[in-house]
Write a structure and sequence with these properties.
alpha+beta
Length: about 110
């Protein structure tokens, strides 16, 4: 069995359960996580190039390619639901591509 910790919208711990108790199949969850990670890594590794084409836009990556981009996140997700109708949207990686690098001073 695989344990899962559940959290609320603020990230506060709510409960611990199992993949099986949620009616999920461990292998499918692992496949989705690997696909999501691969899409996210693709997006991050190409951020510099994406910045030229999609400055200050949210970019969605699915199966290693940009499938949608928009400056409005709600519009982007509407477009995704249409473009990828019938596909598993849980594996899509979405990120904002800022025009300039963001420098955090802590």
């Amino acid at each position: 069995m695989s344990a899962i910790c559940l959290a609320d919208a603020e990230g506060e711990y709510m409960a611990t359960t199992t993949v099986e108790a949620l009616g999920l199949v461990k292998e499918e969850v692992e496949r989705q996580l690997r696909a999501k990670r691969a899409n996210h890594e693709w997006l991050i590794s190409r951020k510099r190039d994406l910045r030229k084409k999609y400055p200050d836009k949210y970019v969605a990556v699915f199966n290693g390619k940009v499938v949608a981009a928009d400056s409005d996140l709600d519009t982007l997700f509407k477009r995704l639901r249409t473009t990828l109708k019938g596909k598993d949207l849980s594996t899509v990686a979405v990120d904002l591509i800022p025009t300039d690098d963001i420098v955090w001073i802590l």
